[in-house]
Design the sequence.
């Protein structure tokens, strides 16, 4: 899940998070507390309340993730760091989010960005590696682009959240999407584009968003090219229009090509 915090106190919250994450600034007199483990891994500045050696594998993978996302989407090179806040237990994570982001609905992991660098929050669950890849994908996108439509943001995060070896053929969405297509039960791209609130993103919206990302990355070369041009316009702050319109212009029989892509897609 990705959230852009737009209220006026967000900067203050952000500073509080960075300055004294474990001891919220109640008294103000104490010097800033450090997290028990802090280290930098590529563009990710990690802060944790437990020893990060216990999840060194998934953390080191994030450097490859950053490279893969940037390459696949031809993103401009960016140097904006991303802060990663990791908690040893769900309860500590839950308390922390409740304390600093009381208006944010509870999710197992979060990406939050205001005007400063993006922030990823997660706890050491069995799904930590998936959560880190999903939320860090949001962070990588928002470090390079001034905006990303919600459906595309989530579709890309769903695409990159699986281990690299499973991205092309092994995403759990794939078999369910194929069934959904047989039953004409997918969400059209135009409708995905009109979804503006994270609360309106259900499993069907996530799956269909993932499917359009998969189609653009592994379907007709024109689709991938158009996605890169669309993101390039976004990066240059040229109004990019709707990706659905741009794809339809490049690929006249777009819907047929989209269905054919998945009916033929086997390992
Ligand atoms: Zn997400």
Sequence:
């Amino acid at each position: 899940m990705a959230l852009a915090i737009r209220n006026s106190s967000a900067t203050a919250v952000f500073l509080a998070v960075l300055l004294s994450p474990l001891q919220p600034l109640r008294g103000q007199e104490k010097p800033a507390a450090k997290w028990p483990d802090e280290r930098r891994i590529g563009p990710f500045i990690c802060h944790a309340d437990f020893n990060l050696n216990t999840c060194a594998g998934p953390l080191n993978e994030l450097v490859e993730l950053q490279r893969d996302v940037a390459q696949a989407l031809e993103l401009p090179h960016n140097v904006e760091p991303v802060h990663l806040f990791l908690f040893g237990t769900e309860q500590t994570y839950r308390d922390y989010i409740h304390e600093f982001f009381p208006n944010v609905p509870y999710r197992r992991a979060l990406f939050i960005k205001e005007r400063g660098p993006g922030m990823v929050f997660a706890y050491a669950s069995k799904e930590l590696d998936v959560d880190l890849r999903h939320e860090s994908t949001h962070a990588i996108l928002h470090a390079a682009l001034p905006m990303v439509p919600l459906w595309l943001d989530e579709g890309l995060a769903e695409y990159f959240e699986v281990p690299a070896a499973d991205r092309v053929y092994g995403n759990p969405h794939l078999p369910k999407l194929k069934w959904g297509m047989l039953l004409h039960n997918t969400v059209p791209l135009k409708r995905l584009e009109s979804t503006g609130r994270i609360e309106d993103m259900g499993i069907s919206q996530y799956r269909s968003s993932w499917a359009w990302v998969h189609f653009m990355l592994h379907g007709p070369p024109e689709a991938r090219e158009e996605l890169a041009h669309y993101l390039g316009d976004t990066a240059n702050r040229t109004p990019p229009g709707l990706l659905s319109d741009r794809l339809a212009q490049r690929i006249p029989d777009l819907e047929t090509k989209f269905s054919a892509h998945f009916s033929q897609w086997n390992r």
About this structure: The domain at 1-144 is CATH 3.30.2010.30 (Zincin-like).
